[in-house]
Request: fold
Amino acid sequence: GENVEQHPSTLSVQEGDSAVIKCTYSDSASNYFPWYKQELGKRPQLIIDIRSNVGEKKDQRIAVTLNKTAKHFSLHITETQPEDSAVYFCALPNSGYALNFGKGTSLLVTP
Amino acid sequence: ETGVTQTPRHLVMGMTNKKSLKCEQHLGHNAMYWYKQSAKKPLELMFVYNFKEQTENNSVPSRFSPECPNSSHLFLHLHTLQPEDSALYLCASSQTAVSGTLYEQYFGPGTRLTVT
Reply:
């Protein structure tokens, strides 16, 4: 399946600052780019996704941008709050009906 | 209970035991998945079922045996496991389309498995 590289593996920001997590991929046919958030002790949940026909999508303080030419997509969180602290995973479709997930980014927002 | 449920939530088993994990989805989805979550590989896909048919086995050892009797239920049968199999096992479900379009995956709470 499609491999996805996710960076950074850990990220610490001050409350109110922005956080950016980036994922790169190699298969130019990839057409669906979701981001999941997993809080400590909880299940992963979809927070935002984008399909290949658009370059950016926003939902309040979170946004995803897609650069198909450079084959990377990024999660942007603005005005971070302590409750944004979690592990964030990007994912890509594989050749079947499933997703291959990145290795995750542990985000810590300090007050 | 709505969404995706998993039982048991915690399981401790010896290396010679046989046990089963159960997953049930109440969302009307047609695809179900097993993932293994560990410190080494945070979300590792194991098996995929679409319309009760196994469509993917991600090079999983035969000591893990999935079963999908219908679109709402998924089992993972375990036997002669190794200590390195200790992990959180997550079930998920989603809707899929004939075109191959993927949609949101809904995860269950997971089963924390410890192999002694």
Notes: Chain A has a mean pLDDT of 94. Residues 16 and 79 of chain A are 4 Å apart (CA to CA). The radius of gyration of chain A is 13 Å. Chain A touches chain B at residues 1, 32, 34, 42-46, 49, 87, 89, 93-94, 96-101, 103-104 (CB under 8 Å).
